[in-house]
Write a structure and sequence with these properties.
Layout: E1 2-9, H1 15-24, E2 31-36, H2 44-47, E3 54-58, H3 68-79, E4 87-91, H4 99-107, H5 111-114, E5 115-125, H6 129-135, H7 138-144, E6 148-152, H8 159-172, E7 177-180, H9 188-191, E8 212-215, E9 221-229, H10 234-248, E10 252-259, E11 266-273, E12 276-284, E13 291-299, H11 303-311
Parallel strand pairs: 1-4, 1-5, 2-3, 2-4, 5-6, 6-7
Antiparallel strand pairs: 8-9, 9-13, 10-11, 10-13, 11-12
């Protein structure tokens, strides 16, 4: 399967610079690149370094809405030449929210067999992000979907400013890795193996000791972390989460977690984007404490409702009802 990386970030955050850094890298990876412009006058392709890669530019619309059909046609074209493609990079516009692109790749019957969504990388301007979060919802949502956040232009910000910006970012998305970078410079190997949509373990929400609920002051976008001991009834959980997402999928952007299932030696790892979610067995529990840990990232989340919903799915024998 061909891995796919989605590159997002607000206007001027450094997406094209990052893309050029990746394409210039000495890695031997054969790329397909899809860029999008919110204009009918293409500029990004001219700003992109010329390399041996298949570069497509979609104009006059966001990948989150008006050019989805164009995106699918380009992906079809790339599939016909999959023998010369190792990795697909999709760069969105500065105003795009990556949800529709993620769902298009995960929910399409043919693409799901041909492509593997490796992760979402968000660029954030260390100097201008606080203002962007205060005035737009798009900047916060881009961070909410990310698996790796590159805090860019750190050479232009003070240590105190960087600490405050990181705190804001962590308040929106406690799961993402955060890297401080200048000129969007980062080791290419980190960009091509994010693993945000694989059977990875969820660790960062455990920092600080258990459950959490926080969001930025400017936005109602934030996260809720639930940690509940006991054995989970998977059938009950599936019924509950399906109903929850059916009723609230517009407000639940991402979901990640691990469940402790009866008789299972390995963690059951959850991944979700809006209404789509799936589970698979991950790493063995070993000597680790068995607990059900789930993080929801979204808008106007009800922490107590989510906590009680998860608790209601515990096995009767565990004393959770």
């Amino acid at each position: 399967m061909i891995p796919v990386t989605i590159i997002t970030g607000f206007l001027g955050s450094g997406k094209t610079t990052l893309l050029n850094n990746i394409l210039r890298g000495d890695h031997g990876v054969r790329f397909g690149v899809i860029q999008n412009e919110f204009s009918d006058v293409g500029i990004d392709a001219e700003l992109t370094v010329q390399v041996d890669a298949d570069i497509y530019e979609l104009n006059n619309g966001c990948l989150c809405c008006t050019v989805q059909d164009d995106l699918l046609r380009v992906v079809d074209d790339l599939l016909e030449r999959r023998n010369r493609l190792d990795h697909l990079l999709i760069e969105t516009t500065g105003m795009a929210i990556p949800a529709a692109t993620i769902i298009s790749l995960l929910n399409h019957p043919e693409y799901a067999q041909s492509f593997r969504l490796d992760g979402v990388i968000a660029l954030a301007d260390a100097c201008h992000l606080p203002g962007q979060l205060a005035t737009t919802e798009e900047a916060a949502q881009q961070l909410a979907y990310a698996d790796l956040i590159l805090l860019n232009k750190i050479d232009l910000a003070s240590d105190a400013m960087l600490a405050e910006v990181e705190s804001q970012v962590r308040g929106i998305n406690p799961l993402a890795q955060i890297r401080r970078v200048e000129q969007a410079a980062v080791d290419v190997s980190e960009m091509l193996s994010v693993g945000g949509f694989g059977a990875t373990e969820i660790m960062q929400q455990q920092e600080g000791g258990g459950e959490h609920h926080h969001h930025t002051h400017q936005s109602q976008i934030g996260s809720v972390g639930v940690v509940i001991p006991g054995q989970m009834n998977l059938l009950a959980f599936e019924a509950w989460i399906d109903l929850l997402l059916a009723l609230n999928h517009e407000n639940i952007f991402r979901m990640k977690g691990v469940l402790n299932l009866p008789g299972a030696s390995r963690r059951y790892v959850l991944q979700g984007v809006h209404r789509l979610w799936s589970g698979q067995y991950g790493n063995p529990w070993g000597e680790a404490e068995r607990a059900n840990r789930i993080v929801f990232i979204g808008k106007n989340l009800n922490a107590e409702q989510l906590k009680q919903g998860v608790r209601s799915c515990l096995m009767v024998e565990s004393g959770g009802r």
